[in-house]
Structure formats: C-alpha cells, structure tokens
Design brief:
- The protein is of the alpha/beta class.
- It contains nine helices and six strands.
- The chain has one domain: Isochorismatase-like (Rossmann fold, 3-Layer(aba) Sandwich), CATH 3.40.50.850.
- Helix 7 runs parallel beside helix 8.
C-alpha cells in the first residue's frame, strides 16, 4: 500500500514520554502513579519511528518541563500543583534525567520543551515544522485527554494535518482515553500504529 502522505514531509510527534512519567524511579513512578497502557507505549511506537525515519521522515519529542524557580522550586501552575502535589524540586527540570525521553525511544531528531498541555503553545515546534517543510504530524504519547488532545486541537487551528495514534497514546484511565478518541474523531484521522506502519511499507 502506498503511503497516503509524504514521509519526507511528515513527523512523528510524541508527547511527554519521559522518565519522570514512565520510569519506576521517575517522579510519577515514585508516587505510585502509573498505568500499564502508558508503560506499553514506547515499544509500540518505536517501530513506527524507525520506519518513518527510514523513509526520510522526522521524529520529534515534546517534553513536559517544569522550569526551576527561586530556590529551585519548580514553577507549577496552581491547578497542576493541586492535582499532583508530589511534584517537587528537580522533577521535569530541563537537562535532568527525569526530563529526558525514555530510553526505548531516545534520541529524538528534535526535542521541544513545553510548559503547558499543547506542544505548540509557546514552544519552537512550529518553527521546526516550517523550517523542515513538514505538513503532517503523526501524534502519540500521554495523556490522551491532556497533552495529546491539546496538541491535536492546536495543530488543527494552525492548519497542520494530523493523524492520531489510537494505540500509540494512552491515559491513566481507559475511559478517558476512549472518550477523547471519540471527541477528536471530527478533527483528525485516528489510526493504529500497525495501520501507519502498513502505509509506510
């Protein structure tokens, strides 16, 4: 099957697949915040990243970032501090191990630090896409109802074509994941990693 998109003008964009989210020693792991669906993502996404790169495509990792403030206390939005009171000094800090892309996917071709849900909000991502003449984003990562959904919607507003990976994204609760896929179906094609691999083959 011929690809329905130009791989050379396509980037795989993963959202927040970082040690502090996924690794047992990361911020979320230490707090007992984990989900099997999330842990399974890197191995499922890796073949797609490899296949896209082999066809001349690009892999971009967007990574949640907590900017260290006074006394190295992270600058955390009040709603996030209420939701995740366990986050503290050093968590998701730029350059720290926990901030980094998980080992199974590292390194990405480009890394984008993001401070909010959308990978396009106040980041350099759109600059990279324009500079590389990329017009299509294949999006996966965590969480489906948070950073993934916000990025898909933001890309839609900017006329960037997207494909959302149904099994390449996940949430802490399966019902939140499924509901978000339904709500985003009007904005983006939704495909499995296997279907995207078939299009690239």
């Amino acid at each position: 099957m011929a690809a329905l998109f130009d791989p050379k003008r396509t980037a795989l964009l993963t959202i927040d697949l970082q040690n502090d989210f996924l690794h047992p020693d990361g911020a979320y792991g230490r707090a007992g915040q984990s989900a099997e669906a999330i842990a399974a993502l890197p191995a499922r996404i890796k073949p797609l990243a490899d296949a896209l790169r082999a066809k001349g495509g690009t892999y971009i990792s967007a990574q949640f970032t907590l900017v260290p403030g006074p006394g190295d206390e992270p600058l955390i939005a009040p709603h996030l501090k209420k939701l995740r009171p366990f986050l503290g000094k050093g968590d998701f800090a730029p350059g720290a191990w926990g901030h980094g892309l998980v080992e199974g996917l590292a390194p990405a071709d480009y890394t984008v630090e993001k401070v909010a849900y959308s990978a396009l909000y106040q980041t350099r991502l759109e600059y990279i896409l324009r500079a590389l003449d990329i017009d299509t984003l294949i999006i996966g990562g965590i969480v489906t109802n948070g950073g993934v959904a916000s990025t898909v919607r933001d890309a839609h507003l900017r006329n960037i074509h997207t494909v959302l990976l149904s099994d390449g994204s996940a949430a802490f609760k399966s019902e939140a994941h499924e509901a978000t896929l339904i709500s985003l179906a009007s904005l983006t094609p939704i495909k499995t990693c296997a279907e995207m691999l078939e299009e690239l083959s």
